[in-house]
Amino acid sequence: MLNLIILILYLQADRGVAAEKTWTVEIPESVTGLKSSCVVVPCRYDYPHQGKSISSWKGRWYLAPNDVYVYDQDSSTVDARYQTRTALVGELREKNCSLQITDIKKNDQGQYWFRIMMEGYNSYSYSEKKITISVKDEPNRPSISGVIKEVRSGEIVTVSCSASHSCPPHPPTITWSRDGRVTVQSEPLTGGQHKLTSSLSFNANALDHQQPITCSVQHHGGKKAINSVILKVTYAPVNVTISPREPSVLENGSISLSCLAEGNPEVDSYQWRNGSGPLSVQGKSLTLSSVTRRIHAITCVARNREGETASRPVRINVEYPPEISEQSFCTKGHSGTQCSCTVQSNPPSIVRWVWDHGENESPQIKNGTTAVAMALLPPNLHQAVCMASNKHGNAMKILIIKNDLLNVYVSVGAGCALILFLTVICLSRRKRCRQQQQNLERENSRKKCEKEKHVYNSQEIKGGKPCCVVDEDLYGNEAMQDADDDGEIYANNCHGCGEDDDIYANC
Ligand SMILES: *[C@@H]1O[C@H](CO)[C@@H](O)[C@H](O)[C@H]1NC(C)=O
Ligand SMILES: *[C@@H]1O[C@H](CO)[C@@H](O)[C@H](O)[C@H]1NC(C)=O
Ligand SMILES: *[C@@H]1O[C@H](CO)[C@@H](O)[C@H](O)[C@H]1NC(C)=O
Ligand SMILES: *[C@@H]1O[C@H](CO)[C@@H](O)[C@H](O)[C@H]1NC(C)=O
Ligand SMILES: *[C@@H]1O[C@H](CO)[C@@H](O)[C@H](O)[C@H]1NC(C)=O
Known about the structure:
Elements lengths: L1 H18 L4 E3 L3 E5 L4 E3 L2 E3 L9 E8 L4 E4 L14 E3 L10 E3 L8 E10 L3 E3 L5 E6 L6 E3 L5 E2 L3 E10 L7 E4 L4 E8 L5 E10 L8 E7 L5 E7 L2 E11 L4 E3 L4 E10 L4 E6 L2 E2 L6 E4 L10 E6 L2 E4 L6 E8 L4 E4 L4 E10 L3 E6 L2 E4 L2 E4 L2 E8 L5 E8 L2 E8 L4 H31 L2 H14 L1 H10 L9 H16 L13 H6 L1
Parallel strand pairs: 2-11, 13-20, 21-28
Antiparallel strand pairs: 1-4, 3-8, 5-6, 5-9, 7-8, 9-10, 9-11, 12-14, 14-17, 15-18, 16-17, 18-19, 20-22, 22-25, 23-24, 23-26, 26-27, 28-30, 29-30, 30-34, 31-32, 31-35, 33-34, 35-36
Helix pairs in contact: 2-3, 4-5
The site of one 2-acetamido-2-deoxy-beta-D-glucopyranose has 5 residues, from strand 20.
């Protein structure tokens, strides 16, 4: 029932307004413009309808109190201060009398009013309702909203920045100090003001922590305003590194490492690992003692309540003086003595070869901490020395020169075949020796054996029975002498069935 009464009253009131339609203007009481930007004064006028046809519309704006023209269709009548700066942006036919003033100046401040001139009907000055334009020198600070006190790394953050302005044809531009997805929205406010809002969305990360997010508003005409907020982000440790970055230690020595990490909240526990698993030490630093060259790379793991992060494994550079490997050797070759020296050291060593009458530095082929130095030394050497040195010490090895393998086999083969041949001959002759006249036989044998003396000698040394022993004393002594002469030099090698060095060396 009450509703119905209200409805009836409302309808009557509405009809009453329509009937009393008269000269009215709707403008805000005041509009604030920014110096050197523009102002659009929203304006709507109305007039009593009397069914007359209007052939054209003209509008004019005045500045009180002297009522100079601020805008007129005939710009020559407009006050010089406004001549190029004003425009009627509203469609008069549609009762829109909005005025735009560009390049606002401080003394544009004042009270303005509107007059309509309709040809074929009437004219009217809405001077009883004036609008006050005020001008400010600097824009307001934009407002920022949407930031939560603290976000977790990875979460999406949306920050909004709003600026108000009075110049819709040239809205300000809003820029952000951080990358992200930006959306812009505009909405009108009262009093000729408009609100432009830019929203920035991004995934927060560790780098955003404590960083200001700044929005900069550039107004038409060049005035700028900024505002910013500080973002707080919680994150699992980042930048987990081991210091020193390139740890180096002398073998059997000790070294201390520390784990550097950043996190929010602060890192509250550390773990250390080597290739085979966690180490017992927990804490920011780790001391390793008696470090061997076989030590694994070390990793540090930093934790806080947001998570854990491992550093890259750090290799420890363990240094030691050179060691020369048993694989090193020298061989007698066709063009000289070929030598190869395998050296383990860290840092790499300088390798030199030293022989009877010479010395040189050797180029090396390196693979990690192993280097192979190869050299072609002069022929017919008995021994050569490989010397290696780095900043931690020296090593040397004497290499006895061996035959090249093919020569050895040929010599050994030939030598043994000869012995066998002579032995057979001797044995067969020996049978006859017994049957024939001993003196003659002894004489013959003696000549033959003297010729091949070295062969008999060898047999004797080998412990075989001398075959053609005619004069045991004589040949025995000779054999012993030979053995002694060479025995010293080749003491480490077996005695073969030939007499030359090649055979002794390899048999
Ligand atoms: C009047 O015209 C201005 C400029 O074209 C426009 O922005 C505004 O929305 C119009 N007002 C109305 C009430 O139509
Ligand atoms: C991680 O290290 C980089 C490069 O040194 C640095 O720019 C960054 O600020 C560090 N991160 C944090 C969260 O401190
Ligand atoms: C790795 O750490 C374990 C535990 O401390 C230790 O026993 C092992 O020797 C280490 N291995 C290497 C290669 O450093
Ligand atoms: C470290 O100790 C080991 C074992 O005692 C030894 O073989 C090695 O030569 C030492 N290294 C150094 C650089 O002294
Ligand atoms: C270097 O040495 C490693 C192992 O010690 C081996 O696997 C690799 O093949 C070597 N590289 C060369 C080029 O000899």
